[in-house]
Amino acid sequence: MLSIRTSGRSLMLAANLRAMATVIKHGAYTEFEGKDGSEDPLTSRLLSEHRGLEGLFQQYEQLPPGTNPKERLHLGYEMIRQISLHAATEEVVLYPAIAKHQSKQAADRLIAETQAVKEVLADLNAAHDPADPRIAELVDKTIQLTREHIKDEESSCLPQLSQALPAAELQRLARQFAAARGIAPTRPHPYAPNRRPWNVPAMAAAVPVDLVRDAVRFGLRDLKSDVNRA
């Protein structure tokens, strides 16, 4: 039985590595059209995901007093999933592009910001008791750090990258980003490599375990509801 499980995990890991290699080499499997009608599909994709995260944050912040602690924790878990997907995809696609076409210093700063978020998310991910008093503090810190990171990207890095690259390259990166998200881990891995090329096999190895754990945490129906993975 152990050998069967090990073999199955090895096959899934190999498939994930092949898929990630395809993303990096060729882009994505489908076109992504900018939802806001902009000429820059990469910025459009990122802004769309940022607005989705902000909506999740506001949903949490607007919970009325006396809300069931389990509901608060469930929203915290959903933040873990969505931020982890977004962060891992940025590490594979966006930050290398910024390092190449903008500056290594800017990419290093964004990587450090993302690392700080993942470390807080890891603590939140380890919280299982809805009555744990640390949960509110960890969620608040997650929201604060993520908002600061998004502001940094949107105020300087994304506009500069958009100006530096031709439309065809921006479209290629947008396709890469959309496809990479579909095979990205859904939980924080702060001790895993966060730079290419080493983050690619690390991500591929993490995904099968993350999906099994998420199936237990959310249920299969909720896992299928993440339209941004498609």
Explain how this protein is built.
- With 230 residues, the chain is mostly helical.
- Helix content is 74%, strand content 0%.
- The protein is built from 8 helices and no strands.
- The model is unreliable at 1-7 and 26-37 (pLDDT under 50).
Mean pLDDT: 86
Low-confidence stretches: 1-7, 26-37
Count of beta strands? 0
Distance between the termini: 33 Å
Task: Report Rg.
Answer: 18 Å
- Structure classification: mainly alpha
Question: What characteristic shape results from the CA principal axes?
Answer: globular
Number of helices: 8
Question: Helical residue percent?
Answer: over 70%
Question: What's the number of structural domains?
Answer: 1
Sketch the major β-sheet.
Answer: none
Please describe the structure with a list of short key phrases separated by commas or semicolons.
230 residues; mainly alpha; 0% strand; globular; disordered N terminus
Q: Topology of this structure?
A:
Layout: H1 2-26, H2 41-61, H3 69-101, H4 104-125, H5 134-164, H6 167-181, H7 199-218, H8 220-223
Helix pairs in contact: 1-6, 1-7, 2-3, 2-5, 2-6, 3-4, 3-5, 3-6, 3-7, 4-5
Short description:
This protein has 8 helices and no strands. It has 230 residues and is an all-alpha fold. It has one domain.
